[in-house]
Amino acid sequence: MSAPLTSLDRPNSYIGRSVPRPNAKRLLAGRGRYVSDLKLPRMLHAGFLRSPHAHAKIVSIDTEQARALDGVHLVATGTDLARICTPWTGTLDHFKGMTSAPQLPLPVDRVVWAGQAVVAVVAESRAIAEDALELIEIAYEDLPVVVDIDSAREAGGPVINPGSANNTCFRSQLDNGTVDAAFAHATHVVEEEFTFGRHTAVTLEPRAIVADYDPAAGMLTVHHATQTPYQFQDLYSRHYGIPEARVRVIATDIGGSFGMKLHVYHEDMAVVGLSILLGRPVKYVADRIESFVSDIHARDHRVRARMALDAKGEILAMDVLDLTAVGAFSTYPRTSVVEGNQVIRLMGAPYRFKNYRASLEVIFQNKVQTSQYRAVGHPIACAVTERLVDMAASKLGLDPFAIRAQNVIADDAYPQTSATGYRFEALSHQACLKRLHEIMDYDGLRAEQADLRQRGVYRGIGIATFVEITNPSPAFYGVGGARISSQDGAILSLTPSGEVRCMISVTEQGQGTEAIISQIVADQLGLAPEHVKVITGDTEVTPHGGATWACRGAGIGGETALQATRGLKRNILEIAALILQEQPSALDIVDGEVVDAGTRKPRLPIAEIARIAYFRSDTLPPGTQAQLTVSHHFAPQGYPFAFTNGIQGCSLEVDVETGFIRVLKHFIVEDCGRVINPMLVDEQLRGGIVQGLGAALFEECRYSETGQLMNGSLADYLVPMPMEMPDIVIAHVETPTADTELGAKGVGEAGTAAASACVLNAVNDALAPFGATINSIPITPAKVLKALKRF
Amino acid sequence: MKARAFSYFRAATIDQALDAHARAGDDARFIAGGQSLVPALSLRLQAPRLLIDITHIGELRGVSREGGHLRIGALTRHCEMLSEPLIAEFAPLLHAAAPFVAHPAIRNRGTFGGSVALADPASEFPAMTLALDAEIEIAGASGRRRVKADDFFVDLFETALQPGELITAVYVPLFKADQRFAFDELARRRGDYALVGCGIMATCTDDLIDDIRISFFSVGNTPTRAKGAEATLIGSRLDAERIAAAQAALQGDLAPPDSDEVPPAMRLHLARVLLGRLLGRLGEGA
Prior knowledge:
The complex is a heterodimer. Chain A is α+β, with helices and mostly antiparallel strands. Chain A contains 20 helices and 29 strands. In chain A, the strands form seven sheets. Chain A has a seven-stranded mixed sheet with strand order 3-5-1-12-9-10-11, with helices on both faces. A six-stranded mixed sheet of chain A has the order 7-15-14-13-8-29. In chain A, helix 11 crosses helix 12 and helix 15 runs parallel beside helix 16. By secondary structure, chain B is of the alpha+beta class. The termini of chain B are far apart. Chain B is globular. In chain B, the strands form four sheets. Chain B has a five-stranded antiparallel sheet. Chain B contains twelve helices and 14 strands.
């Protein structure tokens, strides 16, 4: 690790060490407790009848036969649930002028995408519920379907939301007024149109929820596979009119989320209502087919962009138009415009140029909603920028490394503000570029490429620099009026046996949050991590906080744990000092023992302090009240976001006869500030890269002209599997943020941010001898063969 | 996704299985490995009243030599195509194709007879029965019969099997010293249905092709022999010119269907590339 020594580098430090995840063994042994494992007494099961039409009027719904089926307890329509649930609208105030239609758990008169849930059945079993669904008759009247971006924007074309003049959800413009002049003076201009397919998260565990309303207590308990239990506590309370303190959301083990599990889904809201109507627990687990048509999708952008350069290869300006289609309405409560907003703000982020203009247009269409998914907007901004940089390099006869080295913001030039207005505290592009060049053996790869080309083997080498947004402040959602916290809270207790329980608001979805929190607590208190029990994901137990999104767990949750632990340590040492008749400052804690701060000589186990404080307070000086439970909240201050940076490299081979692409090796140099657990950081990077490779080569939600999802199964929607995963070589540069003691920034999205850009550049590098180019992902064999004019 | 309720019957003999099917008024399905049927039931694409489990019928098991043929019992699992020495020795084309059939978990359960009976045009094994000139043994109310693979595959998921009939075994001519084979497929990911796949059996005298059977899958409604390509090769050596002629002949042999992801012209192109590579390998494998 390369970070400078600080107060974190204590004897027996657990920060910076690859400590195994405390929950890994349990999950591997099949002892995980997921929502789908949950069986409550008197629990019923919900199933949903979905619209086969992408856009249609609901003329009538006949549920008589379904209601009569044995084992069916309730059949509910949109009208039934609208009586108890208030509508929601997916807009935020800081996105000026954005619109979206109000939503209800189930539609009342109109369906707006194929797969939208229309009627709910609650029965003794899921199988019976599905039997009943087959007995429901819905008469629809087709409405004109808006599928692709062009027809959605057509003047006088069909409009999805009645009362709206067009299908525009949101427009935004960034312009510092100097772009036209910069292009006029440029020696070189490169320009291209890029397309990015729609794709989706495909979590191992699908969405799952058990809502349990107890009418006697007026209490709603929701077991919910979500990243953000507090957000849902607030929403269930608000939309069903139950006091917040009487809503409990429990998010236990979760099998992956990637941003997909923090949005309001109609079925989930419906299940809460169904439980209220019945006064019984109701369970709903989306099956894979349902996930494909109802989980949020992401991306789906078409970007026209150009870049101006001077004769020496200095980037002067960028000019960008991003069109993105988001489904029939904006997702609640985080909206569907954040991705587009980040696309236009992250363009060109690694580079020095100051002349920038961008337009964003967010458009409605009759497809399932899009919203935030791992690396929101980053892969698009990165691919557009990095491809233009490569195109410019090729025009100027510069090496891809050389043009980037010439244009990145220098490591010693921070703080800096980007052309798009983002404030960077400290980034390390130059160090990362240099390190990537080494770990790739770039010169060796180029020599091998030249040699193989002689023999008709076409390899490509691509690199992509990136900047990632992490540790978000209220500037992200809070300022827009969303009740989404950017602070976190922790409660720490010393147990009578001298162990520590830490209840913290960040949550665990398999990424290892609980592991790093236990490391930080263990490190800061002076205790082995196995003596720290971390508890997450229960709004009745853990304090209110932001939970997991936008790479905030380590940076914000970690700092919360650090400061809370320092508070607990002060309190423990105060009692120790009284017992040992010392000054607290003369004492420290190492490995569960209070020691002499200077000599490290053990004085007293902290278990003994706990014993005395809890059971023999009579032996302490009069007036002493031991405070062995502390609570602490931490809200990020200073920079609105802690930006991270890095660079990725890719070596691949294109079979120019079949169009197949084989990724040979992938590389990343990443700077997430303080690395708490190197193993977890590396696996976050690997997982993120694999998701980016999926976007680059495989994943796309393909729709028919009538708005039907054509590949909504795991046989047809391709995600990378082990055979498609290359070896991934990882290196780190560490530039801790000075905004926190911990200095950690996020790392969960860095891999995804640049992997697809890297592959795009590598494929174009491989195809260069043929004069063929591709500017669209996923890069399928069909696109490669088309570019090569092979059919 | 939950299947509609159905009755279950475990048959001990072929006769019991056939009888149960008839008594259910043919509203029944035989189940062996269930790798295609169970998803179809869960998706409610199929909802028979009765499932007849044939996995306990001893007569459907086992691989043995019978005269000039290898008898492969219908219940032979895909994984056994990899592990059974008789397959490797006498039906090496099946051995070569087996690793491409889905994934290990599916190969552990899926059966050869089930795959041939379903006749998925994108599956490896049905197409290989064509390349092997295999015969399919069928049991039905009127007794046993053997149908040549060439006559077995009728249309999309449609075969010579009549309702209530059961495949008992597949007979494959024993592999001989003067024969060569090749198999490969182009799939986006390992284990996926291929964009196009092909298996070839050739009988040669020195380097001259006496007989050749070229069978494609994922190119149409049924596994498809490339008879025009075969004709260009018989009596010839596998040189570059002949290979090019065989590739060109595919234009007349294959008529790939339209699909949003793989246009017909692209599939034909891929079939040509694949055939060229396989014939090249066959030529080198002298």
